[in-house]
Amino acid sequence: MFKRRTALSPGRRIRNAIWPEMGFKRSTSYLWHRVARIPDSSYAIAAGFACGAAVSFTPFVGLHFVIGAIMAWIIRANIVSALIGTAVGNPWTFPFIWVWIYNSGMWMGAGAAHGDAQKLDFAALFAGMMEAALQLDIPYLIDQVWPVFWPMLVGSIPTFIVAWFAFYWPLNGMVRAYQRQRRRRLERRRMARKARLTGPPEGGEG
Length: 206
Prior knowledge:
8 helices; mainly alpha; disordered N terminus
C-alpha cells in the first residue's frame, strides 16, 4: 500500500534519514497523508501514532518499533500508525531527546553525575550497549552503560507520558476533520458519477 515504485538503495535510505530528498516540509506533508489515510478510527490512528512518537523519547534504541507496536496493540490502537510515529525519533531529534531525558533523570535524582550531558557520546553508548548485549558482556553493561542508561530511563517516563498526550490530542482532532472532509468529497464524487450514469431527466415541463 505504501511501497515505492522504485526501491531505494541502502545509501539513499541512509541519506534520506539524515536529509530527505523531498525536503522536510514535503516529507512532513507526506507523512501526514500516510497517517490520515489509514483506514481506521481517528482514535486508533492518533493513539497509535502517539505510541510510536512517545516511545521515541525512551532510551530503548533499536526496540522502538517493537515497543510502539506492542503498546498500540494493548490499547487497541493502529499498529501501522504506531510504526510511522516512531519517525519522530530520527538522527535530527535523537541528540536533543537523549540530552533532555538524561538531564531530566539526573534532576529527578537517578544516580550520580556521569559527566556533562552535552559531552556524552550517546551514539557510542548505544552502539556499545547493543554489542555488549549480544556478547552478554555484563560487566560492561553494569560499569559503562547503566550509569547513563538509568537516568535516561527515569527521565523518559514523565517525558513519554507528556509526549503521548501532546501528540494524541491534536492529531485525533486533525484526523477526525480529515476523515470527515474526505467522506464528503467521496460522497460528492459518488453523486456526480451517479448523475452522469443516469443522465438528465426525460421530458420537460409541460
